[in-house]
Specification:
It is a single chain. The protein is α/β, with parallel strands linked by helices. It folds into 2 domains: about 120 residues, TIM Barrel (Alpha-Beta Barrel); about 60 residues, no CATH class. Helices cover about 35% and strands about 15% of the residues. The protein has a 5-stranded parallel beta sheet. Strands 1-2 form a two-stranded antiparallel ribbon. Strand 5, helix 4 and strand 6 form a beta-alpha-beta unit. The longest helix is centred in the first third of the chain and has 12 residues. It is elongated.
């Protein structure tokens, strides 16, 4: 639940945490992007106060941008038409098996940037053994995961891969040293 304009931190932390959250290294703290999902901000059902609160935080300089996640193209258009400040980031499931082309087209027209989640399909669907990705990556000595990350970044899609293995963490960053 998004707090009303009470000064409570957006992180849902205790009110006593607010002074700590507002300064880091002696400097005023500004959150990067406030991210909310369609379940919190459904343009047709959600309180307009929630949307207004996000816009107020942006205008006050307390956040640098407004982000959304999981909006369908029609809901994204509704949101943009009913808001003063359009979202700059849209987090969506995005990978070679779910490319979200219509949604990405709407986002591009409105100046938003897609951020991929489940970009490696959470390891499902055989993505790490996919024969097409292996065949494409083989001449470059790249893994299927590296090929997906390269594909995403070449399309200007924000890709934030997760790994609990240090080797894969380094591998995920090694996607810019080959010609395409």
């Amino acid at each position: 639940m998004l707090p009303e304009d009470t000064g409570a931190p957006l992180s849902g932390g205790r009110r006593s945490d607010a002074p700590h959250m507002q300064k880091m290294n002696g400097q005023p703290y500004t959150a990067g992007i406030v991210l909310f999902s369609h379940t919190l901000l459904d343009c047709r059902r959600a309180s307009p106060r929630r949307r207004q609160r996000m816009e107020d935080l942006y205008e006050q300089g307390r956040v640098r941008g407004i982000g959304i996640c999981n909006f369908l193209p029609d809901r994204l258009i509704d949101l943009i038409l009913s808001s003063k400040i359009a979202p700059i980031v849209h987090q969506i499931e995005l990978h070679p098996f779910t490319q979200q082309i219509p949604l990405r087209k709407v986002m591009a027209e409105q100046g938003g940037v897609p951020t991929a989640w489940a970009l490696l399909t959470d390891g499902r669907r055989g993505i790490f053994d996919n024969p097409v990705l292996r065949r494409i990556g083989q001449p470059h000595s790249k893994t299927p995961a590296q090929m997906v990350l390269r594909w995403l970044t070449r399309q200007r899609i924000c890709a934030i891969p997760k790994s609990v293995h240090e080797e894969r963490f380094h591998e995920n960053h090694n996607i810019v040293d080959f010609q395409s």
